[in-house]
Amino acid sequence: MSIFLELGQRPDEPGPPIHGPAGYPADVAARLADDAAVIVARYPDSRSALLPLLHLVQAEDGYLTPAGIAFCAAQLNLTAAEVTAVATFYSMYRRTPTGEYLVGVCTNTLCAVMGGDAILETLEDHLGIGAGQSTPDGRITLEHVECNAACDYAPVVMVNWEFFDNQTPSSARDLVDALRAGEPPMPSRSGALCTFRETARTLAGLPHPNGADDTAAVGAATLAGLRIAREHGMSAPDAHGPASDSTDEAPGHEQAEAADAVKDQPAPAPSADVPARGQTAETDPTATDAS
């Protein structure tokens, strides 16, 4: 029996992996080079600046083009193939023209069961487009996205990677209507909503276009576990218990005994000092032998 595997881009992806204009006019290239110099100077190895430079050219074109790929390659002394390999790996780099607002509906497990699938279907019907497509006015590109680590506020809709929490089909319709009307609402966790290209410049590490403060307080849902732990007097066990001097017992017995003593206790909280610096399995009775 023979099996045929067709490799390459998905059938619904238009054109080659990277398409569009092949180069920039001289004035555009010079302007981008000035921005690129600021970005590259932050890294001891210039090629480490590739990801922010991809955001920079995405801010210029609204998606990645051969012009953007060639520009990044020239700035970092890389080949176009090397840049393309990175650019096509990450979903944040767009391969097709993207609207002013990239609206992403999380359809991963928790958001889906909380209504994410219904939100996506509602928006597809309301906007008259499918996931991965843009409205004729160029305002909105709709897509379904993987988990954005915002499960505590599911279902979540993201606009240019800004969170809009606890959405419903109705609120999501209102959201896209406001975007199309030129009245972008305030995101749940930041001070302003930028256009797709403005967001890309920010992700490149350049100043926020409107100087807005993107800091936001941590929400109650995120802190729920910590609040419950405090109400019940829960805390992490001491990770620095006294070391045992016994040498008569079989190797590994002390470690097994220590592990049994704490098996019903809560796991230690994350910490840069657990185990303590310089502590090894020989000096830490709670350490286990990874070998």
TrEMBL record:
<keyword id="KW-0479">Metal-binding</keyword>
<feature type="region of interest" description="Disordered">
    <location>
        <begin position="234"/>
        <end position="291"/>
    </location>
</feature>
<protein>
    <submittedName>
        <fullName>NADH-quinone oxidoreductase subunit NuoE</fullName>
        <ecNumber>1.6.5.11</ecNumber>
    </submittedName>
</protein>
<dbReference type="Pfam" id="PF01257">
    <property type="entry name" value="2Fe-2S_thioredx"/>
</dbReference>
<dbReference type="InterPro" id="IPR036249">
    <property type="entry name" value="Thioredoxin-like_sf"/>
</dbReference>
<feature type="compositionally biased region" description="Basic and acidic residues">
    <location>
        <begin position="250"/>
        <end position="263"/>
    </location>
</feature>
<dbReference type="InterPro" id="IPR041921">
    <property type="entry name" value="NuoE_N"/>
</dbReference>
<feature type="compositionally biased region" description="Polar residues">
    <location>
        <begin position="280"/>
        <end position="291"/>
    </location>
</feature>
<keyword id="KW-0560">Oxidoreductase</keyword>
<dbReference type="InterPro" id="IPR042128">
    <property type="entry name" value="NuoE_dom"/>
</dbReference>
<keyword id="KW-0408">Iron</keyword>
<dbReference type="GO" id="GO:0016491">
    <property type="term" value="F:oxidoreductase activity"/>
</dbReference>
<dbReference type="InterPro" id="IPR002023">
    <property type="entry name" value="NuoE-like"/>
</dbReference>
<keyword id="KW-0411">Iron-sulfur</keyword>
<keyword id="KW-0001">2Fe-2S</keyword>
<comment type="similarity">
    <text>Belongs to the complex I 24 kDa subunit family.</text>
</comment>
